[in-house]
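Hi R.,

Here's the chain you asked about this morning:
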Amino acid sequence: MSTIKNWFWEIQECRQGPHYYFNATFALSDAECLVALVRQHSLSGFVHCQFVGNLINAPCGRCNYQGAYDLYIDQYNYSENFISRLESGKYTITCLHSQWNIIGVCGNELAIEYGSGGITDTHNETGTSLIVAIAQSPEVTLIDWQVNSGGEGYQPVGFEIGKSATELLAYLQIKEPFC
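And the predicted structure, written out as tokens:
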């Protein structure tokens, strides 16, 4: 059995960034099941919050629409100020620190965003564990996924894209980066 690498392994080995992005789209009919699967997963170091509205910079990049969002914010950046800004009509995610970890479920999309490489190994491992659990679940159908880096004025760099859970799990076992 091979070892699973963190989902952002190639970004690190190629010295890209500063932010790491994982996005996955599931069958449209799997939206409710996806929310339930993520809620059931142990997301150590994260605080769960729900938001209904038009979230301008949701971690699910294609989800800037009126809708319901399940957000999991790292405990270092989560605060009442964070929530009050969302509830007061300032529909943007603003983190207090230069590093952050956010997991979002927006409809049938799952997204993970690690600002400046994320905070701790525990947070980083939690994201990878979630991805593997969801990819292995027979309850949802993964349509496509991608791993990217960029942000803060840096050009986006695409690392890998795929069309199935099998391709995603294989990517997490690759030994050498393609950079």
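The chain has a mean pLDDT of 82.

Let me know if you need anything else.
M.
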